Amino acid sequence: MQIGTENQTHHRIKSSSTSNRQALLETAFGKVDAALGQFPGTIIADTEYGREKNYAYLNEEACNAVVKYSTYHKENSKSWQTDISKLDNWTYDEKNDAWICVEGQKLTFRYERKTMTESGFEIQTRHYRSSTCDSCPLKPKCTKAKGDREIQVSMNYIGMKRQAREQLKSEDGYAL
């Protein structure tokens, strides 16, 4: 693991092991906090740290962080922006708690499930399903499922990614 500082305000963390990165952010910066007596001013980390658990930890610590998530660069590509299967290209109807695909089909909420990651972090996912995709001309581009389209969504992670995207596209984020 490597931790670097710049003017005692920006801290970078890098690990050669990908297996521990999800839990590593909390462990590493807990050690930095203990050693320095304070939390770093700005945390910069690569895409391997852009997971829901790490974002939740950074929010709990009220950290200023610039942490990319795995699809950040892909989202700006034309192929991503025109891929109708991507949830990012759909509309969320908050009032009715439903997702609307590019063809206008509504995927309604069915149930919620809580799962635990290997590190013990709880993720809450909401499950949605369309009522019928059989006659949709875009179905082959949207899903490989034989039946209707189903999606699992962590609304917390979507919000965290939105925050990260705003930070990354800000003047400060862009400068880093």
TrEMBL record:
- Superkingdom of the source? Bacteria
Q: Mind telling me what this protein is named?
A: Transposase DDE domain-containing protein
* One Pfam family named in its UniProt record: DDE_Tnp_1_6
What the entry lists under InterPro entries is as follows: Tnp_DDE_dom
- Give the organism the record lists: Paenibacillus phyllosphaerae
List residues of the Transposase DDE domain: 100-174
